[in-house]
Amino acid sequence: xxxxxxxxxxxxxxxxxxxxxxxxxxxxxxxxxxxxxxxxxxxxxxxxxxxxxxxxxxxxxxxxxxxxxxxxxxxxxxxxxxxxxxxxxxxxxxxxxxxxxxxxxxxxxxxxxxxxxxxxxxxxxxxxxxxxxxxxxxxxxxxxxxxxxxxxxx
Length: 154
What we know:
Order of helices and strands: HEEEEHEHEE
CATH architecture: 2-Layer Sandwich
Structural class: alpha+beta
Distance between the termini: 19 Å
Helix content: 25-40%
Number of domains: 1
Strand content: 25-35%
CATH class: Alpha Beta
Number of helices: 3
Largest sheet: 5 strands, mixed
Strand order of the largest sheet: 1-2-7-5-6
Mean pLDDT: 97
């Protein structure tokens, strides 16, 4: 039977994908004590990058928000793989967002709200987190957005 958090995810119409395998020399997550760190996840859907290109050029702001949301869904898939049960999440501590965009783009925070808003939708108040959002010239596989996460688990 699915736990409380997985039931909430299902209510939101979200199905967690199979966690992506690393594309380089790193692991998808690490756990130390009660700290779970999830490596950056790109907006993969069915094994392909769903949002490619630069935000503010090839990718609209609205699509970039959807990309960030999809990245967080992929983060959740890694959390589930790491813990076996999303109800073990005590708190979302931090999300980091990387936005591929031209140097003139300034709405990085609005893009990252796609991930942050979903964190709060899924976890409620314990989904409120610290955050960094950074503009970059490019990301792996030409992804528009990448999101990493840090969680306290019990």
